[in-house]
Design goal:
The protein contains two helices and no strands. With 148 residues, the chain is mainly α. The longest helix has 137 residues, at 11-147. The radius of gyration is 61 Å and the shape is rod-shaped. It starts with a helix and ends with a helix. The mean pLDDT is 88.
Length: 148
């Protein structure tokens, strides 16, 4: 009852009680605002974490895609280089066999050329012999014709 008596007797006391009541209301409102702010801050942090995680997942997917493409490109390039290497080895082998064949043909041409030259010499000597025989026959016919 002292509190009620105090309120009834003094207007200052009533004003002090009013101020205390306002202070408590204000503190309750501030506590509610702080709690609400803390809750919003926590929600924002969670959303940020989710956003960062989604961004990392997308980044990881993009990097994995590029890595896969690079791997496929390297594999394709490696396969092409191997094929070119095989083709070059085949061309080298073909060129070697062609060179050997060319050298063999060159030797055969030389042999044939020398045989043709020998044949020409034989034909020339036969023609010369035939001419000499013709000359000898003509001379023999003249000699027999002069004796008659």
């Amino acid at each position: 009852m002292e509190f009620v008596d105090l309120l009834e007797t003094s207007s200052m006391a009533a004003f002090a009680v009013f101020l205390i009541y306002l202070y408590k209301q204000q503190m309750a409102r501030m506590d509610a605002l702080v709690d609400k702010f803390q809750s919003q801050l926590e929600n924002t942090r969670k959303e940020y974490k989710i956003d960062v995680e989604e961004l990392r997942n997308r980044y990881d997917a993009v990097v994995a895609n590029y890595n896969e493409e690079a791997k496929e490109t390297r594999t394709t390039l490696s396969d092409r280089l191997n094929a070119v290497g095989q083709n070059l080895r085949k061309v080298g082998t073909d060129l070697s066999s062609l060179y050997v064949s060319h050298e063999s043909n060159r030797e055969e041409i030389r042999d044939l050329s020398s045989k043709v030259e020998q044949g020409i010499k034989i034909v020339q000597s036969m023609q010369e012999e035939a001419r000499l025989k013709e000359i000898a026959r003509a001379a023999a016919v003249r000699n027999t014709g002069d004796k008659d």
